[in-house]
Prior knowledge:
One of its GO terms (biological process) is peptidoglycan biosynthetic process. This is Undecaprenyl-diphosphatase. With 271 residues, this protein is mainly α. It has one domain (3-265). It has helices at 3-16, 23-33, 41-58, 60-74, 81-110, 114-134, 146-158, 166-176, 181-210, 216-244, 247-265. It is globular and about 55 Å long. 41% of the residues are buried.
Amino acid sequence: MGLIEIIVLAVIQGLTEFLPISSSGHLILPSQLLGWEDQGQAFDIAVHVGTLFAVLIYFRKDVVEILSAWFKSCAGKGHTAESKLGWYIILATIPAGLVAGLAKDFIEANTRGAAVIATTTIVFGLALWYADIKAKENKNIFDIKWKAALLIGLAQAVALIPGTSRSGITITAGLLLGLDKKSAARFSFLMSIPVIGGLGLVMIIKLILDNTAVDWNALILGTVLSFVSAYTCIFLFLKFIERMGMLPFVIYRLILGVGLFALIGFGYISA
Length: 271
């Protein structure tokens, strides 16, 4: 991989992992328009590790409090709001894990085309817009109950379809369930920790088993850049989300989806 490819792909991954705009729709453009080769599994692991570090460090206080309370609850020392939140994050992770384990090959074989990505980018962008204008937003993150956590987890499983956006659909679900914007985004980001961590672990094991040669310079640079862009993204998104709402992201998604259809129509990228 060239330096420009490393920088562009790492920054795109870092930004789109947490913004509700879909990483798939963005990653398909440079690869197809510029003829870049697939970045490979090792680089995928590196940029995912960078985004994982970003969310862990940004939410380090929350993570420590939730884990501490969760382990105490496991030891029979009672439940707190933090321990319950830990259990709900685990519950919300299960649907995506099951769907990925049972249908990953089918999803990859049938839903990775540009037309699917363009469609899901638009459809779930409109769903985000609907949630933004219709949601009551009268609950915070500690008001989440197990049914709500499971529903948000089911939404996260749908995000295995490229173009949906994991953060986009989980924030949409959270808003529709009455969470305020910051709480919906916060729960979505905390949910990403076991998801990204599990994905990274699976990819690392596969990499080791395949005995794949890697370019360590590219991996280190990709990790650092994805970390910086993801951390900056989380900070700015949570800082301004209540003020600006979801409309800017909805508009952006609609433009991206229509743009992808236009590129397909003119033959610049394949459907």
